[in-house]
């Protein structure tokens, strides 16, 4: 049996300094879609986009819960989350 692909929650820094949080099963393809203007409406025209954080989770449910949790965080907490990921 083929191992299941992980579920990812990711954070992009947009060219205007804002952040976008999303969910995907294929991080590389999703980032490419954002960069091609075919991702979320929010990121269109806000390039360049930079992947600043990603987190692999075991299932869709936990990934979507984590995405909602990050989206509720104030900007300061998102920046701290990014900083922690760079310290690893």
What can you tell me about this protein's structure?
- The chain is an alpha+beta fold and 88 residues long.
- The protein has a domain at 1-58.
- The protein has three helices and three strands.
- The protein has helices spanning 27-35, 60-72, 75-87; strands at residues 7-13, 19-24, 50-57.
- Strands 2-1-3 form a three-stranded antiparallel sheet, with helices on both faces.
Summarize the SSE layout with pairings.
Layout: E1 7-13, E2 19-24, H1 27-35, E3 50-57, H2 60-72, H3 75-87
Antiparallel strand pairs: 1-2, 1-3
* Mean pLDDT, all residues: 92
Helix content: 25-40%
- Estimated structural class: alpha+beta
Q: What is the radius of gyration computed over CA atoms, rounded to a whole number of angstroms?
A: 13 Å
Descriptors:
88 residues, 3 strands, globular
Short structural description:
This protein is α+β, with helices and mostly antiparallel strands. The protein is built from three helices and three strands, in the order ββαβαα.
């Amino acid at each position: 049996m083929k191992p299941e692909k992980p579920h990812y929650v990711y954070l992009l820094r947009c060219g205007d300094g804002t952040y976008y949080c999303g969910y995907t099963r294929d991080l590389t393809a999703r980032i490419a879609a954002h960069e091609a203007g075919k991702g979320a409406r929010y990121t269109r025209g806000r390039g360049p986009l930079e992947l600043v954080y990603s987190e692999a989770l075991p299932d869709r449910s936990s990934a979507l819960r984590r995405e909602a949790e990050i989206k509720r965080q104030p900007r300061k907490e998102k920046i701290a989350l990014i900083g922690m990921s760079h310290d690893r």
